[in-house]
Design brief:
The protein is an alpha/beta fold and about 210 residues long. It contains ten helices and five strands.
Amino acid sequence: MIRVVLCDDHAVVRRGIRDTLQEATDIRVVAEAGSYPELREALRREQPDVLVLDVDLPGRSGLEVLSVLQSEGSPVRTLMVSMYPEDQYAIRCLRAGAMGYLNKGGDPQALVAAVRTVAQGRKYITPEIAELLANHLQSPEGGEPHDALSQRELQTLKMIASGKKLSQIAEALMISPKTVSVYRARVLEKLGLSNNAELTVYAIRNKLV
């Protein structure tokens, strides 16, 4: 039996994932978490085989959580899920130590297949991700400028481009407005941009919003 812990801050999404997985006779969802503290407790208590982890958690992001688990040597195998397309987060997640990446809007049966694959210690790679990996191998020094952004910087870029104010971004990410300003400055510097208008144009051109 594959023991799974789900971590997503939206209860409705968790329910959908849980119901999909529990239709499989060899998979059991042993715990759910809506935040990092809840996840820590669930992992300690249940010691699951697979963690299905949302990329876009409030406060500490899914990628940051993954980084912590990797640094601690956690044996749990992580499948990252997100509402974002593969070209925005898949490579970033795999580099961070995830065993797979899946778009939450995809085929429910793909989720079952992904959990089974990850539980066996193998990477779950969709055809879209395989193509992305091939492109990266062909041009290892290439890639887009935003690939160099940290997870928080990328989140800040997306939110600014979506029209959110610094105070709204701070509230969503559970950080101070001053820290958001620091992330914004770093984004502008790394992308060679001057203001929010240029940042928004960049995000639209690169299909980040």
